[in-house]
Amino acid sequence: MRRCIGVLGLIAGMLASPVTAQVADLRSTTQFRVCADPANAPMSDRDGTGFENRLAEFVGQTLGLPVTYSWFPSGMGFIQRTLRMGTCDVVIGYAQGDELVQNTNHYYTSVYGIVTRRDGPLAQVDRLTDPALKDHGIGVVAGTPPATHLARAGLAPNMRGVDLFVDRRVEDPMGDLLEGVRSGEMGAAVMWGPLAGPRVKDDPDLQFTPLLHEEANPRLFYRITMGVRMEEQEWKRELNSLIRRNQDAINDILHEAGVPLVDDYGKALLP
């Protein structure tokens, strides 16, 4: 996950400047303008089927504002070309502590897990140190925390890596991992819960098992927030209040979508 960053003292005197005020006034008061990837299923999608789309609709209804989108592929340049340009006012799903945005309070915490065939030899595996993994190829997103755990367990030769930041309008690395497990090309894939859980929720062949027992660092559960511009404190407080008052309804949307939820200590939250 991205690193946290402190507020630099040298900009303190700029907070009341006309330039800063102009940036802070970018937020629309007539629309709930969302920055989103148009092809990041199951999170966001231009067709409106992602669970972040459903969350956006819920927030928009709660605020009494129509939802509009500024679409741009996630990855390099996403925040600069959307939120910072003022074409939208919030990123629905953003890792807590990211240095490019100001985070709201987190509205859910999720966890990495392992995808296996329901009828396969790894169906009971719930730890990356399980000896059963040594005889199978394991799909994983390169550079993510589970890759460190797999390497530490001596499974580096088994890893089949894919890239996370690709243009998903033409590539589907998460789908490739799932298909690899389904076909038997790989025995398992270790994936971020919000990306994998909804895809296998109703799959007759595949299952997702949260990795709740890993004790070594890096941790495998992370808080997800909404991201707003650095200067917009009032907007952040408004969203924080909305999250606090509607947490149960937000959880219901996430559970229904198949997103695995855990508490702030990495313990499972049941629907």
Describe the structure.
The protein is elongated and about 55 Å long. The longest helix has 13 residues, at 51-63. Helix 2 packs antiparallel against helix 8 (247-257). By secondary structure, the chain is α/β, with parallel strands linked by helices. The protein is built from eight helices and twelve strands. Mean pLDDT is 90; it is low at 1-22. It starts with 17 loop residues before the first helix and ends in a 14-residue tail after the last helix. It folds into two domains: 15-108 and 221-257, Periplasmic binding protein-like II (D-Maltodextrin-Binding Protein, domain 2), CATH 3.40.190; 110-210, 3-Layer(aba) Sandwich (D-Maltodextrin-Binding Protein, domain 2), CATH 3.40.190. The chain has helices at residues 18-24, 51-63, 78-81, 145-152, 173-183, 193-200, 233-245, 247-257, and strands spanning 32-36, 39-40, 44-45, 67-71, 90-95, 102-103, 108-117, 138-141, 159-162, 188-192, 206-210, 221-228. Strand 8 (138-141), helix 4 and strand 9 (159-162) form a beta-alpha-beta unit. Strands 1, 4, 5, 6, 7, 8, 9, 10, 11 and 12 form a ten-stranded mixed beta sheet that branches. A two-stranded antiparallel sheet has the order 2-3. Residues 1-21 form the signal peptide. Keywords: Signal.
